[in-house]
Design brief:
By secondary structure, the chain is mainly α. The chain contains nine helices and no strands. The radius of gyration is 16 Å and the shape is globular. This is Immunity protein 30.
């Protein structure tokens, strides 16, 4: 099975609404690491689904995406992936929390956002605003800094 077939299979069972899907989902994620490539991040992010039945299984997908994105282009790949998470907006926040909580990634993030298309940047900024509204005390200052850097 090639990568596209694996992503397609993951996508089909992503709601995890049957317990027998859980080991299949986990196995497919493991198989992706037989030939790991950073460009898989964007495709895999389409699999995220907010109303998933077994939430804990999705954390395996989060760890897989983070491992594939590891390196100099981490924030950029994650941002492109987030823009591919049509039904996984809540999960996208987990990735952004990780960026906001990692000083090196946080410092690069305004530059990363400027590399995105206007539509992609608006999408990410909308999520950042939601995070700021929900957790002003913790993330407000960091998000305000990001906004001032990309708008200034």
């Amino acid at each position: 099975m090639d990568m596209d077939e694996k992503v397609s299979a993951l996508y089909k069972i992503r709601k995890l609404d049957k317990e027998e899907y859980v080991p299949v989902f986990d196995k497919l994620i493991q198989e992706i690491f037989t030939d790991p490539k950073p460009e898989y991040v964007i495709k895999l992010c389409a699999v995220f689904y907010d109303e998933v039945y077994f939430h804990e299984v999705m954390y395996g997908l989060i760890h897989a995406v983070e491992a594939l994105a590891k390196g100099e282009n981490y924030s950029y790949l994650i941002s492109l992936g987030i823009c591919n998470m049509a039904e996984g907006r809540d999960w996208s926040k987990d990735f952004i929390y990780g960026i906001l909580n990692t000083k090196d990634e946080l410092m690069k993030y305004p530059k990363v956002l400027r590399q995105l298309s206007e539509e992609q940047r608006r999408h990410i900024v909308g999520i950042l605003q939601e995070i700021k509204d929900d957790d002003e005390e913790i993330f407000g200052e960091r998000i305000s800094w990001i906004m001032s850097e990309i708008n200034g």
